[in-house]
């Protein structure tokens, strides 16, 4: 898996890079209320106890790739308490404050003497790589080789060629660990002797969410493989303490919100302000059903709303029918507004996530930016019942605010505490975008779309007198880890259907207008043009409430904006036209309009169908599939799904990787060759008219792994599962369900 090579740098910077200063929040932490194991610096995970290191010693640094001025520095933990042991080293850029979250561990005294202790020294080390630095000479990367039944937790870095002492780190017994995956590529270096690239990533548990037990150690992973998702050589820890004793009690929760609760600023020109849910109901909101065209008034607490179940489209909420009342409700009532708080464990109970939900009765129309032209949309972007949120992530070791997640439509971003704005003490600022209510860490204009090309939906944020202080205007509506009945969940929270009616736009005229306004120099194909604009152009449906969102149980979903690099990876490059969009529309305007109207319907429908299907069929425990891919495919021409990878869940791959798999199918090599998806190799075991199945030949799973591949004239569905005959049947049923749903649009 690893090879050893040497890197060198062609130029030497003029000065030695400065050391980053440790980060501290603007104000001292308070004395938290007493109780439980929260903020006691050590956390029990069952058989082991962990401690978060505060101080580090620089070992070696590497200049950043891509011509950036900063370095990446590798550190070893310092001031490790007695009886605790290092698990691995830490890496970060020196252009940010020093703020590592690196754990050291010891065996708990409560565990009886066992033949297999929780921690063991490595047998020895394998040299992964060496690299020259203009500042620190040569650096050496070492992987601990664990005893049988144990896992390494991280990498050791030295500035000398001698193999490190086995006393330096400890390996952890395998049953106390979880698999981890790479995230946040830190550094990429190229060899001076070969074309091999050496990459360094952060790691995190593969399984994340409210009830997942994986604990991030804070170490890094490095490899010569360019696309490395699930990591086999190192692992994360697992919290086996079912009591989650480090989580805050209810008094501590209130203290955290009082201390960290952000102030939410709305744009000075915002017409559609938040309100409380009770004000929305009291002001005339109605609930409709498929069986009754007449809306029913909702009582003040929402107790007559249907509860439980799933979002099956049987019920939805709408505004009052009277025009004056309808317009009044759209405006909201900021005086009644409050934040609805969901408190949950994160990363195995070593962090607390405080998700704060904002309700706005109405989401206003969007503004589209095309180059230097701003287009105010009349209806597109509007919907009833807008739920947005942001999440505070707090360290359970100290009670320190670690980061904030800013929800932005279908995704969002984590922002470290040192990159936040603060208004008072340690209270961050959240900026809510005009009309759309997405949250951002700083004022300004953010483009949702192809920001590098200046094309996308505008999210405008600014300070104003319109604000809500969440540190005082909030209500805790759920904290499941505290036990049943600890928090009285409101009736409306159990409503799992849509908070607004579905709207389908006839956006043909709008899109024609957009094409006419595109800059002449943008020579893009029709297929690529669609991906520059947000899918909100095509239709809106009222969102589900907080409990219907994937992040209620799962982790927050980062969204990476479309970039120029994404545009260039499509398999339909042969359809790029040597004509400007302006000339293209003048020559073929009627044909384009028909295609736009048709493809728009497919795009919105596919993603809506995929999201609902994936949420119930893809995951780990209890789900039929561990991952799935929907691949753009048409053997006779360009697919109507618009991108090489139409959708993916549970796996991270790219069009270039999948091109070999698509060629494997097109060239009908099912009976003669193996194929690869991710890091797994598969052998076809059964071939049918429009689908085939295969088994993984290099899996480490005891029960094995398999894949079901369904092929149509528009797409390839790849359904990956773990297990044998029984799981294969469940996987086939899940895949067949999606195929049937997409078939309703002749896809």
Automatic annotation (TrEMBL):
GO molecular function: actin binding
Top-level taxonomic group: Eukaryota
UniProt-recorded name of the protein: Vacuolar protein sorting-associated protein 62
């Amino acid at each position: 898996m690893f090879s050893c090579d040497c890197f060198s740098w062609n130029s030497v910077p003029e000065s030695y890079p400065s050391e980053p200063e440790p980060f501290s929040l603007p104000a001292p932490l308070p004395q938290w209320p007493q109780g439980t194991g929260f903020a006691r610096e050590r956390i029990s995970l069952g058989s082991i106890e962990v401690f978060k290191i505060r101080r580090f010693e620089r070992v070696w640094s590497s200049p950043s790739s891509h011509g950036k001025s900063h370095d990446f520095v590798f550190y070893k933990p310092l001031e490790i308490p007695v009886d605790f042991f290092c698990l691995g080293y830490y890496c970060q850029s020196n252009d940010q404050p020093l703020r590592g979250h690196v754990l050291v561990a010891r065996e708990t005294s409560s565990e009886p003497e066992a033949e297999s202790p929780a921690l063991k020294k490595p047998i020895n080390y394998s040299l992964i790589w060496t690299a020259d630095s203009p500042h620190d000479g040569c650096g050496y990367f070492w992987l601990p080789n664990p005893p049988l039944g144990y896992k390494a937790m991280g990498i050791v870095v030295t500035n000398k060629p001698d193999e490190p002492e086995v006393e330096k780190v400890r390996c952890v017994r395998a049953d106390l660990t979880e698999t981890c995956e790479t995230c946040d590529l830190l550094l990429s270096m190229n060899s001076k002797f070969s074309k091999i690239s050496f990459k360094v990533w952060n790691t995190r548990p593969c399984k994340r969410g409210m009830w997942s037990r994986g604990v991030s150690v804070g170490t890094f992973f490095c490899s010569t493989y360019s696309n490395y998702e699930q990591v086999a050589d190192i692992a994360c820890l697992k919290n086996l303490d079912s009591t989650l004793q480090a989580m805050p009690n209810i008094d501590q929760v209130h203290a955290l919100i009082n201390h960290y609760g952000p102030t939410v600023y709305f744009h000075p020109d915002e017409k559609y302000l938040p309100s409380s849910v009770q004000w929305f109901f009291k002001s005339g909101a109605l609930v409709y059903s498929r069986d009754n065209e007449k809306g029913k008034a909702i009582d003040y607490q929402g107790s007559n709303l249907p509860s439980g179940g799933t979002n099956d489209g049987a019920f939805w909420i709408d505004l009052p029918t009277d025009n004056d009342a309808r317009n009044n409700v759209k405006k909201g009532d900021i005086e009644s507004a409050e934040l609805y708080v969901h408190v949950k464990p994160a990363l195995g109970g070593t962090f607390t996530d405080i998700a704060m939900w904002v309700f706005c009765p109405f989401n206003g129309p969007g503004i589209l930016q095309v180059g230097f032209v701003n287009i105010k949309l009349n209806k597109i972007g509007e919907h009833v019942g807008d739920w947005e949120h942001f999440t505070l992530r707090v360290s359970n070791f100290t009670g320190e605010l670690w980061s904030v997640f800013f929800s932005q439509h279908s995704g969002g971003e984590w922002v470290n505490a040192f990159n936040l704005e603060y208004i008072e003490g340690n209270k961050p600022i959240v900026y809510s975008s005009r009309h759309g209510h997405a949250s951002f860490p700083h004022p300004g204009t953010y483009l949702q779309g192809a920001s590098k090309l200046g094309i996308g939906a505008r999210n405008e944020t600014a300070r104003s007198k319109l604000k809500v202080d969440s540190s005082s205007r909030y209500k805790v509506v759920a904290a499941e880890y505290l036990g049943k009945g600890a928090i009285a969940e409101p009736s409306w929270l159990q409503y799992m259907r849509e908070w607004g009616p579905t709207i389908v736009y006839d956006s043909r005229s709008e899109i024609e207008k957009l094409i006419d306004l595109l800059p002449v120099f943008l020579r893009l194909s029709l297929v690529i043009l669609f991906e520059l604009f947000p899918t909100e152009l095509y239709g809106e449906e009222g969102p589900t409430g907080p409990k219907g969102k994937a992040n209620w149980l799962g982790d927050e979903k980062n969204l990476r904006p479309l970039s120029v690099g994404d545009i260039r990876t499509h398999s339909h490059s042969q359809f790029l036209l040597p004509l400007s969009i302006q000339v293209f529309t003048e020559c073929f305007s009627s044909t384009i309009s028909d295609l736009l109207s048709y493809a728009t319907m497919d795009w919105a429908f596919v993603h809506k169908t995929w999201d609902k299907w994936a949420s119930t069929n893809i995951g780990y425990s209890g789900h039929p599939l561990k991952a799935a891919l929907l691949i753009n495919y048409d053997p006779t021409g360009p697919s109507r799904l618009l991108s090489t990878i139409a959708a993916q869940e549970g796996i991270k791959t790219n069009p270039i990787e999948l091109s070999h798999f698509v060629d494997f199918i097109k060239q009908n090599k099912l009976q003669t060759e193996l194929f690869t998806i991710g890091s797994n190799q598969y052998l076809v075991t059964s071939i049918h008219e429009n689908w085939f199945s295969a088994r993984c030949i290099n899996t480490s799973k005891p029960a094995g792994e398999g894949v079901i591949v369904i092929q149509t004239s528009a797409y390839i569905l790849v359904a990956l599962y773990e297990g044998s005959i029984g799981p294969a049947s469940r996987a086939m049923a899940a895949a067949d369900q999606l195929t049937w749903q997409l078939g309703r649009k002749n896809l």
